[in-house]
Amino acid sequence: MIIADQLVAVMHVYSLLPPYEDKEEEEDRARRYICKVELKHTTMTAFSRLIQYQNTKERVNQLQHAIEEIKLKLVEVQQERLRAEKEKTNCNWVNCFRRKGSFLNSLLVNPLQKENKGAIYKTETRVSRTRQKVSLLKFWR
Q1: How much is the pTM?
Q2: Could you state, in order of their start, the residue ranges of all structural domains in the chain?
Q3: The pLDDT value given to residue 62
Q4: Coiled coil: which residue ranges (predicted)?
């Protein structure tokens, strides 16, 4: 469509030019003019394709950058999941020990303060627990 429009324009311009006496020179001039128009059209097409290629290349770069960001986020999420699973297993062990130690805690806590079960006499070693048991037994006698 573009080439046809350009050829019509060339023919119009060619009709406005003064006629040559030599028919071959006239045809040669027309061929050169048409070649120039085709060269311009080819150049413009190549230039537009180059721009499209550059735009496509930029889009590809943007997509690659986005993919890298997504991969980094995925790694972060996986690390968070691993941390959460480790914490969950640690909590399960702690809860298991708390359940086993709840009988001992019930012995240590004042029966009037059942809602604070184990909160008052939390200790880290068995020695301190036995000391507390002895002191509580003395206190309750």
Answers
A1: 0.35
A2: 1-8+28-101, 109-141
A3: 86
A4: 53-92
